[in-house]
Amino acid sequence: MTEKDERRYHVSKSNKHPRSVRMTDIAVSAHNLHKSFPVPDATSVEVLHGISCSIEQGRMTSMVGPSGSGKSTALLCLAGLESATSGQVTLMGRDLNALSPAKIAKLYRDKVGFVFQSYNLVPYLSVRENIAVSDTLAGRRSDQRRLEEVLSRLRLESRANSLTSTLSGGEQQRVALGRILYRRPAIVFADEPTGALDTRSASVVLYELRRLADEGATVVLVTHDLNAASLADSVMILRDGHIISRLDSGISSEILLSIMNNAVEGE
Ligand SMILES: Nc1ncnc2c1ncn2[C@@H]1O[C@H](COP(=O)(O)OP(=O)(O)OP(=O)(O)O)[C@@H](O)[C@H]1O
Ligand SMILES: [Mg+2]
What we know:
Strand content: 25-35%
Strand order of the largest sheet: 6-7-8-3-9-10
Low-confidence stretches: 15-21
Bound molecules: adenosine-5'-triphosphate, magnesium ion
Radius of gyration: 19 Å
């Protein structure tokens, strides 16, 4: 990440050296993942052509690539929200092909968080109630101290009792992220979480995703924004349903752009 990237988002990568990675430190991995969708006038179209990757625990990994390159599909398959046509995904040590829907739901409840471009909030609940909704669903009392801390971290104190339907897009995305910060899942999948946001809200969201990884969570971020992608510890570049490159050091938006441009010229 260049100084320019850091200035743009007021975010800096942790200076911690990455821990040495053992097999047990892999949060999610894919082996030879294929994904096809049925299409009219054809049997199907293959969107992922045998993707294999490992995403380490406690690090932020981003996925970039042109529109239609398969980023969202790959993220959904890695997260188990979409089933692959063939291949294997291991999420938090569990083979997703071998898990029943009930076991997958339990895994999500305990360990996985999602942030999408659409906020998926409950419109008739307040900001505070949305952030602690996992406790309500589980029939638990919410942790007031943690709730106040999350509201403050996301600069939402003054809107704490507002209905989320009355908030701006940026505020709503901060509430969606608040649910994650409150619940502290081990792994967070985010697909274009800043895609519809102004720079200030995007900065808050990216800062908090980066901080989650610095605090030990695994963060997988799909983004169009190369400046945002360069905040990660590792970047996968997708093109036409393949991972064409992976960077684990020396990541900057300029380098990512140059790799993507070279891939287009090399066609
Ligand atoms: N449910 C679906 N049915 C049919 N085709 C699909 C479906 N979902 C995705 N596709 C196709 O798969 C390809 C990859 O889509 P995907 O959404 O993964 O791309 P993306 O890299 O996330 O693009 P963007 O940056 O625009 O979000 C596209 O050609 C898309 O039209
Ligand atoms: Mg997408």
